[in-house]
Design a protein that fits this description.
5 strands; elongated
Length: 523
């Protein structure tokens, strides 16, 4: 008797896809093409590795907390302190751990949105593919945006960890609402939910909006999955409400910074929101792939607006935050669009699942609808094959070099600053990297909170390294912020003769056109 061999093509495709993601991340870790605020995250982890209980501000020499002082970063800093391994190595390990958590997160998401267990592997593959690739060609390179160009760079960030925690919290909520378990199991699930929500709020407050919308979706869909009497409905509602209140209270007890002070501080008009205005620009180029959604809702036999009212409510909440952010100038709320994308991806997958076609048709369709974005990922995949380029010490080449190339060139300074908390005065583009090497700078590149003169610092540093600065301008900055060193690169070395009265004649360290000078004590 010949046995018919059965296999799940979607499961095999999913396994191959996940293995490829791991391979991609290993290659990128080896190439280290890190950019943006990676260096700020690295500075925070470094600070916790040195001062775990009483960290100093990792960027500036000021008496203020930092908004990245989250439990996630404390854990990474403690790992560096306990093991003695490099900060960059711990961040690399965090990337791989978060990638595995992300894969588990997508699997849980499919269970929350797709009822048919027989389609679980298909839904998993589709959702993974859509979340990573089904975006517009100008999708922003910001945290919370999980398209592949951003995803591979932000895997070590608290925002990615918080995304996974949000989905785990939704999974716990579903069990809490739908299962008739013992009191002790219910209490355990309740405690886990409170801990997850408070962790999300402290690690990445904006992701708390996504977590809340996920919980709202699970709460609303629970009515379709189980018969609620009025008493049980009230009890479950009060239980979720209590979990939310307790999570807020618990987050408020976090000792390293005040969550509520941060939420109050981050109002419309400050640098955080000014930097996020781009999230409201070129919306069509971000959104046009989602035009497929209304077509699929029309075609899919089992997906209707009436049936998906819970999805519509959650998306409406996120959309309301997005719109309010625009009209109030709180442009950081633009990240709600990233979460709306996730919900849209989920509904697209649900529509596709209900359309019965052959596997060959499916794979052809997936290739066609994702190829536009695949063509936009050359900036990510070029790192697989391009050799590291060494910067020649000229002004133009240094200014136009990538972040990772500049950081590598500056790395010889790291032993000078180790555990000393020295303040370095350098140009704004170079100031991004110095805190990751153990130094403080005069002005921060990215938004800092609870520092009233942050913008004034940036203006003074820009003036100091401009050709229009007078000796009085430069002396004013040095006397006000009292830096220990001045760092000149190939882009600013032409100022050496003008700075001779402020610095020692011989550099403390020099290499390839970069020189670190100690400021004269008389200054």
């Amino acid at each position: 008797m010949k046995l018919k061999q059965h296999y799940d093509a979607w499961l095999i495709a999913s396994i191959i896809f996940c293995c490829l993601l791991l391979l991609v991340q290993f290659i990128l870790i080896h190439k280290a093409p890190w950019t943006g605020d990676y260096w700020e995250h690295k500075a925070v982890v470094r600070e916790f590795s040195v001062h775990l209980q009483h960290p100093l501000h990792p960027i500036l020499k000021v008496d203020a907390p930092h908004a990245f002082f989250s439990p996630y970063m404390v854990l990474l800093g403690a790992a560096v302190s306990a093991t003695g391994i490099a900060v960059s190595t711990v961040l690399n390990i965090a990337m791989l751990v978060n990638l595995l958590l992300f894969i588990a997160t997508i699997y849980i998401l499919t269970g929350l949105f797709i009822d048919e267990s027989k389609n679980r592997s298909k839904a998993f593959f589709l959702l993974l593919l859509f979340i990573l690739f089904f975006w517009g060609p100008q999708a922003p390179l910001y945290s919370s945006y999980l398209h592949i160009r951003s995803f591979v760079l932000i895997l070590s960030y608290p925002s990615t960890f918080s995304f996974s925690c949000s989905v785990f919290a939704a999974g716990v909520t579903k069990v809490l609402l739908t299962n008739n378990s013992t009191f002790y199991k219910q209490a355990g699930l309740f405690i886990i939910l409170v801990l997850l929500l408070s962790l999300i709020l402290v690690c990445h407050p904006l992701t708390f909006a996504f977590a809340s919308s996920m919980l709202l979706y699970v709460y609303n869909t629970s009515f379709n999955q189980i018969k609620f009497n009025s008493k049980r409905l009230i009890n479950k509602t009060l239980l979720l409400f209590a979990a939310g209140i307790l999570s807020l209270l618990l987050a408020g007890l976090w000792p390293y910074y005040s969550v509520f002070a941060l939420l109050k501080y981050v109002n419309g008009g400050n640098q955080f929101h000014a930097d996020s205005l781009t999230l409201y620009q070129s919306l069509f180029k971000q959104l046009f792939p989602l035009l497929l959604l209304p077509v699929l809702v029309f075609v899919a036999p089992s997906v209707t607006i009436k049936r998906e009212w819970a999805w519509l409510v959650s998306v409406s909440v996120l959309l309301a935050f997005f719109v309010i952010g625009y009209f109030t100038g709180a442009y950081g709320m633009g990240r709600m669009l990233a979460f709306i994308f996730i919900f849209c991806h989920l509904l697209i997958v649900k529509c596709l699942i209900s359309i019965k076609q052959s596997k060959a048709f499916w794979f052809a369709l997936l290739f066609l609808i994702t190829i536009p974005y695949l063509l936009q990922t050359n900036k990510t995949f070029k790192y697989f094959f391009s050799p590291k380029v060494e910067i020649v010490s000229t002004s133009v080449e240094f200014q136009t070099a990538s972040h990772d190339a500049k950081a590598q060139l500056l790395s010889f300074l790291e032993p000078v600053f180790e555990k000393k908390s020295s303040v370095v005065l350098t140009d704004m583009s170079t100031s991004l990297f110095m805190p990751a090497m153990g130094a403080r700078v005069v002005a921060a590149v990215y938004p800092v909170y609870w520092v009233a003169d942050a913008e004034e610092r940036k203006k003074q540093v820009q003036l100091f390294f401009s050709a229009n600065a007078t000796e009085t301008d430069r002396a004013t900055l040095i006397n006000r912020y009292k830096p220990d060193y001045i760092l000149l690169t190939a882009a600013t070395s032409q100022l050496l003769s003008q700075l001779s009265s402020f610095i020692e004649p011989q550099p403390v360290a020099t290499d390839k056109g970069i020189s670190l000078y100690r400021i004269r004590k008389s200054q």
